[in-house]
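Sanity check

After download, print the first record. It should look like this:
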Amino acid sequence: MKRVSLKSLPEAELAAFQTRQQGNNCAIHAAIAALKLVEGLELSPQDLSAEVDRLWWHGHFYRVFPGWGVTPCMQARLINYLSRQHNLNVHAHCRLLTHAVLMEMLEQDQKTVLVTLTWLPGKAPAFYHGTSSVNSNATHKAGGHTMLLAAYDPAHRSGELTTPWGFINSWAEGSTELFWMEDQAFRKSAFGAVLPLNIHPSVIIEHTSKSVKVL
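Expected structure tokens:
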């Protein structure tokens, strides 16, 4: 498999879309990065998080509870809400995708994908920032995390490890490097669906015709 990346952009340009999260807002940061990349929309993660919390109290559920996580299907609904609010030309929907399809998505300029990873206690997958050999996800707790899939490079290495999957991640502000994962770690956490809230671990964001009504 050849190296592929979102819009064929180099790693440094993709990494510049990263913003550091505060609180339980990884999905919000990932969605904002995707919309900025494909539509040029500038949003504040903190402001959007506060807006999502306010909307929850009015019966519009774009996260589980105020301050809590955002499930994949909620992510899709949130992106569609933002598309309506800002008159964007995008639509989002949940899917369970194979690795082959994820690679194909990276080659399609009209589509981007948010991926939610989940893990059990003591089973957290390792994330590596650029070529560093230091694991940025050294936790022993169960958890989940959403990132924007940005690249696949079979030759990429973090230290001595082969780490082909690259992501725009909310654990750095800007930077010139993506966060990378080993193939096996990505397969186990992205499609293992060990938590009941993560039954649809991928969200496809795609351009639509202006004549198409986004529901």
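If your output differs, re-run the checksum step. Summary of this record's structure: Residues 115 and 202 are 5 Å apart (CA to CA).
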